[in-house]
Give the backbone structure.
Amino acid sequence: MKVAPLKSSFMLISMLGFMISVVYTSFGKLSETWGFTFGFVFALMFVASLISMTHAPIDQQLKMAEDFSPMHGSEHHKTHVHNK
């Protein structure tokens, strides 16, 4: 089974979407049919992000991270400020 790495924002959107759909449905701003449908879709998105998180290779996930920059030995010393 091939698993595509997903961004962490995908998981965040799924959690927020599920919570918002539950709240809107409970306060009557969204019908129960649409509330269930949105909740189900966002729950599936969350499950997909969990599967992606546990099965995707770490190298692909690190390449997707925008702030990832591997630090090598000489570069590591350049970034730290030493107080004398």
Notes: The longest helix spans residues 32-55. Residues 29-64 form one domain. The chain has a mean pLDDT of 80. The radius of gyration is 20 Å.
